[in-house]
């Protein structure tokens, strides 16, 4: 089988795949039986029509939003797999990292130190202990975030239409927004979650609340986020993901009460290794299934 690794993955995984398969170079989509992507490569109808031998797409990571027409792929008999479990811990730890950085004014403090300034009296933070954390989406990552937040003494509220039984207090979205000091998003991007936090939802939030988003940029209406950050309704935001428009131009980049990281949720040594191993396993399993047929 021919494998096209369209986006970078763990080098050990690449070496393992090369032992058993013919690994193609980018641009050889037409020859590919298997395509491996991360978030950078977009697979749409034009891509699928060009890759006439394509049998399976493996997305290294959690979301499938860069596979633009899943139904069309399925009609073509193309299987779609991803590795959501492999990066859960890494994304959860980054989420807590954003919370700690915001709570203890770490970005401002670090910047001041570089400028040889010590505005210690002005940099009064807050403790996470005793704060209410509202987790929107209690899947693999959401659960890992809750586990770590509990160790900080945080009160956990969660909202997820697909979770009916949980040790955490499950509430409706509007109640979560009204009660939470910090709101953290862990949902996939689809038509139900696009602009999940919009004008009406921002009105429900506590004054001075914090928003963390390590899921997908388009689940928040960024214009409303900017408006509420400027007004002080939202005191701070920690973002690892953005809409395509924000990447090109957004006033968020110039705001002091925002931490922006460049989609590094899964960018740890351990997560990349786990993702690589999961990909190799999925490729081998698919080959066995294909040969049985």
Question: What CATH architecture of the largest domain do you see?
Answer: 3-Layer(aba) Sandwich
CATH class of the largest domain: Alpha Beta
- Secondary structure class reads alpha/beta
**Fraction of residues in β-strands:** 15-25%
**According to CATH, what is the topology of the largest domain?**
Rossmann fold
Number of helices: 11
With strands numbered from the N-terminus, the spatial order across the biggest sheet is 8-7-6-9-10-11-12
Question: What does this entry look like structurally?
Answer:
The protein has two domains: 107 residues, NAD(P)-binding Rossmann-like Domain (Rossmann fold); 173 residues, NAD(P)-binding Rossmann-like Domain (Rossmann fold, 3-Layer(aba) Sandwich), CATH 3.40.50.720. It is of the alpha/beta class and 293 residues long. α8 links the parallel β9 and β10. α1 runs parallel beside α11 and α4 packs across α6. The chain has a seven-stranded parallel sheet with strand order 8-7-6-9-10-11-12, sandwiched between helices. The chain is 38% helix and 17% strand.
Key terms:
alpha/beta; 293 residues; Rossmann fold; 5-stranded parallel beta sheet; 2 domains; 12 strands; 11 helices; 7-stranded parallel beta sheet
In short:
By secondary structure, this protein is an alpha/beta fold. The chain is built from eleven helices and twelve strands. The chain is elongated and about 65 Å long.
Question: What are the SSEs and their pairings?
Answer:
Blueprint: E1 2-5, H1 11-20, E2 22-24, E3 34-37, H2 45-50, E4 56-59, H3 70-75, E5 79-82, H4 88-103, H5 106-114, E6 132-136, H6 140-151, E7 155-159, E8 169-170, H7 173-179, E9 182-185, H8 199-204, E10 209-213, H9 222-231, E11 234-239, H10 244-248, E12 258-260, H11 269-292
Parallel strand pairs: 1-2, 1-3, 3-4, 4-5, 6-7, 6-9, 7-8, 9-10, 10-11, 11-12
